[in-house]
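Input record, target 12 of the design panel.
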């Protein structure tokens, strides 16, 4: 059975939700990884994703900038958030999903361009 992953630097998930909906309807990836969601966790549009069949959601956000999210049609078994270079920004999220009876570990990163540290 095929397993598909899409990834997108969305630059504000709430602003672009109509385009995200179109992507999910037309291409139906098993997993969608988003970067630069620019939304605190409590305002992430979970209901919109669930309505489209993406019941399994993990996010690591903050207000105004950075933020990552992973939404899936398959169950997410494990979620981990890491910080890098002692930076507290919401730039990483890893999830484990299953496909074909195997565990797949997906790392979703936002790495800003430029600078001395990731």
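The sequence produced for target 12 reads:
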């Amino acid at each position: 059975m095929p397993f598909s992953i899409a990834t997108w630097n969305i630059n504000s998930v709430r602003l672009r939700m109509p385009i995200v909906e179109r992507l999910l309807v037309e291409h139906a990836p098993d997993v969608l990884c988003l970067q630069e969601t620019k939304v605190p966790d409590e305002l992430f549009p979970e209901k919109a994703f669930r309505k489209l069949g993406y019941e399994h959601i993990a996010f690591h956000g903050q207000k105004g900038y950075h933020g990552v999210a992973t939404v899936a049609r398959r169950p997410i078994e494990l979620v981990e958030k890491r910080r890098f270079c002692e930076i507290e920004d919401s730039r990483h999220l890893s999830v484990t999903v299953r496909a074909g009876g195997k565990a797949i570990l997906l790392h979703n990163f936002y790495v800003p361009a430029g600078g001395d540290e990731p």
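The CA atoms of residues 94 and 107 lie 4 Å apart.
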